[in-house]
Design brief:
The chain is mainly α. Helices cover 77% and strands 0% of the residues. The longest helix is centred in the last third of the chain and has 30 residues.
Length: 74
């Protein structure tokens, strides 16, 4: 399982590097600057942590509605 995750991470990173600067996306230099900027990383991590709470809340609501039959086929 860990090998699959490692392979997928490598493929994703490779695709990001390959597509850098195309169709209006940031260049590879922009990507390297973003990675080097600790403040930018902190902002992304903070957003991800906050959004994870939102996703958990939404999932709990979905579970309740599912148990009540809200999503049954009609």
């Amino acid at each position: 399982m860990y090998q699959v995750i490692d392979d997928m991470a490598a493929l994703t990173a490779s695709a990001q590097l390959h597509c850098g600067g195309t169709q209006g996306s940031g260049s590879l230099d922009d990507l390297m600057a973003f990675v080097a900027d600790q403040g930018g990383q902190a902002a992304v991590i903070g957003y991800a942590q906050h959004y994870a709470l939102t996703v958990k809340k939404d999932y709990r609501e979905f579970q309740k509605d599912f148990k009540r039959g809200k999503y049954e086929k009609t």
